[in-house]
């Protein structure tokens, strides 16, 4: 028996129409580096998004569900593209300007982008790339920047403002299937080719509603959100869509992501909310310590992307900026968990702080489960560690395989019953709080049990003689895998492998069967370009016999 | 191009599972009239809902999308039925215990309810009705009440607790189509047969998300909601579903809806939110004036169902209970508008108060438009009055026509393009605030323009000699309809129709062409059982020549 409800699809055009009428006076403020930032109302954004859609359709011949790319910072024009492109039925493809050029080229070619909307300030990045971007026919340039960089390129170059000028300020947005593609991001995987995640109108709409729930980020039209997380990074965590849905003002930093301008825009524009990855906040904290500013407007700071260090959370608390930890990934739109402490836990207590340091709870709409090394379901007991798998209407169930390809569903990324394997390993407490401890690929699978490399590393690094320690899995005939401990000793240390092993055993946290048998000393742990332990290199060095291994036990 | 997102249907079983795990310690507290209220955790509700579903399926043979009725107050068992019945695939049919018995019987027969879950305290209502309820085979009784009232009835009688005892506490909820029927309510229309509105899993889920948005009611697991609005009245405005989605505690008054117990439960349980119609709050206000209590916990009071009198809002403000006005109807799930003042309007000002007295703005997901007497779209200018039409995924697009019937789409209820004609007349301001002034059927359609009967009545009643005044439309050869003014004069009044008409003209608010030509004096305006002007009677009296009409102008 069907219901008697109207069959109204959840479309991004509806978010646009709602925001630009009901919340028409809310604003997108873009930092310019000048005295006055640039301000544009939601009503103006709505009118200009309609103009952009007309221009893309009539002048650039965008049809159907063609991908239209953006190479842009967070600013008002990027918000216009966010709404115009999916609303007209095309697919917004945000390009990550931080990727290596060859990856960027691969992605543009894979998505078959024919049009790129680019900030003028990013032409130095785009221009040398253009000869490698086969499908690109049109580049639409917004904002300041040297256009002559595109001279001689085999594309048609358009000024954004000229292109949209005089176009009608409304558009008869089509009634699309809500499951149709609306936007896409490629994950910058460290192994293999980048993988495209394609969001639907439905997934964006539902994710926006979720973000707006009071139990989640819960902003209203009285708020202003400083959207530091880039619009090319998982749709700026869904904030442009979510804010348009409820009239939350947006403060956009454009290319001014350095600590000093961020501090200045917080002081002068007084946002009530901000969202960024920990490194941004670490930089801001250093800036504020050196040059204090009034940042008291920031009642809620969403931190995600990687785990928030406790010291950062503490320091922000002292400045009156309350951190809310969240977890997600490109494949999860991204809100997967959010760390609001449970009701009844008193503010300012150690118990509350511990809850806030977890990755948090699943919001309504996201289901999570832990899978052990043998594929078994693990209990929510705060102790059983397994790979996190998630399900929900804004969670990816496949990757994009090009305009003519089938979807990709690699078995290491999606379970047989369709859940996303996140590649993150952790525990879930009885009251539903997720604590991530490892990436699955860094976990050691020993005799059907898992050993956390991070736990061993942290224990080793708490020894006074150890400067650095990295633990990786190495093949073992009997157990499948066993841990290899790679240690950098401090100068003058007299520690031996035996004393380190005894130290680990004495800590109490490490079970006897988890203790490493294989040990090696190195001068420094190999690191990636962003300073993380490069475990791939260690594993390769071990495999090629380049490490001097001592066997214990 | 389809997205790569998972295809996860929005189901009520997912709300149940989320609430009973992530928010398992949140509580449903039911008032008992004894010293201690009854408390049940969301985890227990989840387990018992699974038991109820097993019992309905295995013992009572409930299959497919069968309707299962409830005749119950707001209490924990009713919440269990709310989740068990739709989650298993059946359709929850809440019976309005305030309807006249013959209407109730018509509805049960029309819906073909085979099972009724009834509170023991309502058996005095149900027992005499049973012989007229042809399809009913099973009555499941919860809570205190004299079971012997059912002796001799041609149904099987079950004790709710006995029925569910020992059943498994989990249930493998089916993956349903989210557009499938989940719950139904009949509107108690004053004309014609009651009309069934059938909610889908999708509409309930989306409505719950909307209610939980910070821009809307915006409750969290730190809140407790006193759900006074009955569960048989548009799903208690969606609160049981919305609260389970975010862990909001529910305080349920059961049958104790009188002002004194309501005041007592507010003082002792300290809810932070409450929802009810104005008459409940009028009663509570009188009670609190006579017997002051500490009601300071109530930070937000949602008032809907009919317009909130300004005096009530003022009085509640003084008690520290902030009223939030909302509008909706059975056909709108019900949240259609909510009156949060726009950002930037200072609290406590006249401007803010005026915004709060409107019906409010459409939330994301609801679109509204005004249609004039000739079917034309009217502007949002705060002046053009038209019938409100709404569209959205939780708005009805038809009525239920029985188990084997097609849907009903009467042309006076649904537009050709599928919008709901609400039957309410009002204006929308440029910033999107709806102000309702009339029911469409009370508006006078004169020469392609509308005349508000309520406006004329209010103007007339502001004359010192007028005790009561009712204005209705009567047929007119030239204009289609014209207003008839029916006046009750105060004792000793010397006012004439001419002076009253001159008074209206002099008021400035009433245009000359809106002034009534037809006047009559009556001893009292006929009233309905709930004290409203009964305009049907006036129209009939006019049509049958029973009124003594004076023609002016």
Automatic annotation (TrEMBL), chains A, B:
It holds the Pfam family AMP-binding. Coiled coil: none annotated. Residues 455-532 form the AMP-binding enzyme C-terminal domain. InterPro entries: AMP-bd_C, AMP-bd_C_sf, AMP-binding_CS, AMP-dep_synth/lig_dom, ANL_N_sf, ATP-dep_AMP-bd_enzyme. Keywords: Ligase. It comes from the Bacteria. GO terms for molecular function: ligase activity, forming carbon-sulfur bonds. Its EC number is 6.2.1.-. Residues 35-400 form the AMP-dependent synthetase/ligase domain. SUPFAM superfamilies: Acetyl-CoA synthetase-like. It is an enzyme of class 6 (ligase). Belongs to the ATP-dependent AMP-binding enzyme family. This is Fatty-acyl-CoA synthase. It comes from Streptomyces collinus.
